[in-house]
Amino acid sequence: MKWAFSIQQKFKAAALLAIVCVIILITNLLGRQHIDTLGSAFSSVYEDRLVVESYIYKLSNHLYQKKLMLDNCAGQSDAQRSTHFGTHDTAISDLLVDYEKTRLTEEEVVCFRDFKANVAALQNLEHQYFRNAADGPQRAETRSQIEAQFATASSNLHQLSLIQLKEGKQLTDQSQRIVAGSSLLTSFEMAVLIAIAIILQVLVLASKPVVSRITQRSSLN
Questions:
Q1: What whole-number distance in Å separates Cα of residue 160 and Cα of residue 112?
Q2: Highest-confidence segment of 11-15, 127-131, 202-206
């Protein structure tokens, strides 16, 4: 019967070691998943928020430069105006293409679509404005519409910038939750390992008297 008790103790120890291995494997897999998610969050903060914010700044600057040129284009020839405005229009078009390649939220899609429509309307109004070289009510009305489109485009850019801040904060909060979860998982793993180590120690101590009694009886023979 003593050999059966010894085997039982060894079986318990082996079972506990197996549990340790399973726990380490599970926590390792969860840890890798957390790291991948955290890396994706940091990547999104840079590629989809910080870079986009730089696009918004550049778009705002090009629109501002166009507005300045529009206010000071009286002495310029058609070729000069076409060159200067064309440079900014091309830059804006390239930025819109780059912007659209990033990950857009549903709210951002709507606002970005409105901004592109404003830019297209603004360019059409600018061409119409320069075609009507003579000052008059029609040209003044076109200029008023241009100013309204500039204001609308600026408002849309501001809204897009606010979206970047909101999404960036959400990604930051997500990263903090991942870090907190990883810390909790590590603490749980350590607690389980300590508990199992204590149980193994108890099993080892419990098996010592059995070995001692077996040795004593053998010496009596």
A1: 7
A2: 127-131
Calculate the alpha carbon distances from 53 to 10, 45, 99, 116, 193 in Å: 63, 11, 10, 16, 47
pTM confidence score = 0.64
Question: What CATH number is attached to the domain comprising 82?
Answer: 1.20.1330
Decide: 95 and 59 in contact? Cβ < 8 Å. yes
What is the crossing angle of helices 106-131 and 78-100, to 10°?
A: 170
**What is the token pair recorded at 194?**
């300590």
Is residue 8 included in any domain, yes or no?
A: no
Question: Across 17-31, 75-89, 152-166, 176-190, which has the greatest mean pLDDT?
Answer: 152-166
Q: What is the pLDDT of residue 111?
A: 92
How many distinct structural domains can be found in the chain? 1
- Residue (of 47, 175, 52, 45) closest to 108 by Cα position: 52
Alpha carbon distance 210, 38 (integer Å): 52
Q: Are 153 and 13 in contact (CB under 8 A)?
A: no
What pLDDT is recorded for position 10? 63
